Amino acid sequence: xxxxxxxxxxxxxxKLPANEARILLAHLLEKHxxxxxxxLLSRDDMTLDIVPLxxxxxxxxxxxxxxxxxxxxxxxxxHNIELLVAPGVLIPRPETELLVDIALAEITKLNRSTKILxxxxxxxxxALSIANAAPLASLVATDxxxxxxxxxxxxxxxxxxxxxxxxxxxxxxxxxxEQGQFDVIISNPPYIANQDPHLTQGxxxxxxxxxxxxxxxxxxxxxxxxxxxDQHLKPGGLIAVEHGFDQSEAVIELMTIAGLADIRVHxxxxxxxxxxxxRKGL
Length: 282
Hints:
Strand order of the largest sheet: 5-4-3-6-7-9-8
Number of strands: 9
CATH topology of the largest domain: Rossmann fold
Distance between the termini: 67 Å
CATH superfamily of the largest domain: Vaccinia Virus protein VP39
């Protein structure tokens, strides 16, 4: 790789898709030169010094090897916040922002201090996004993975949201002790079925398997969360869960069996059934 290549030439000659090359190059411009992403256009004739040029080659090689960009950069934007991410946690997806919006709509509707439970918090994406947008909400976020909770707590610290979110270790509701009942329960659990071919493709190959699949039908975690909601929701409280694009009917049935009312289907930006919500009876 020639040191004389301009930013424009680096992108043009890169084996990666242009949008991915721009993301990696913008990261280097910010890290080494404190330049914004717009410099890719305004200073496209600029050349890199030897250290960032070597780092560029390393970043491109890692991405060509399939490593997710979020893990390469160590961060991922999600619902107006930026999160530290690492191989120990699921990479937050845009479609999961739907759960945040559902929770925020309920907080606005209640128009009072609310208690929110986030089951399987991972990097803390859902809980911290809610806390960031709703300062009067108090949140409890659980995860079975100690590694994930370490990352979530670091995110809470960097976002100055430590006082608003309590992190507990354990499987789903088992992590709870004396937290009482909640106004809203939110969860994006593992819902990919065991042996699904997607688990061996793309970014999923690098993410923690236990955050993607229940090693069963894809519905076992959803079933446990929905079945346990009644005990942990206040009367009239809301539960909302993310699920696979083809699991909507099954999840609605689970909510019906659990005795939930006002069951609703929520579409993601692609028009897929991506979440379901229901309420505990009054």
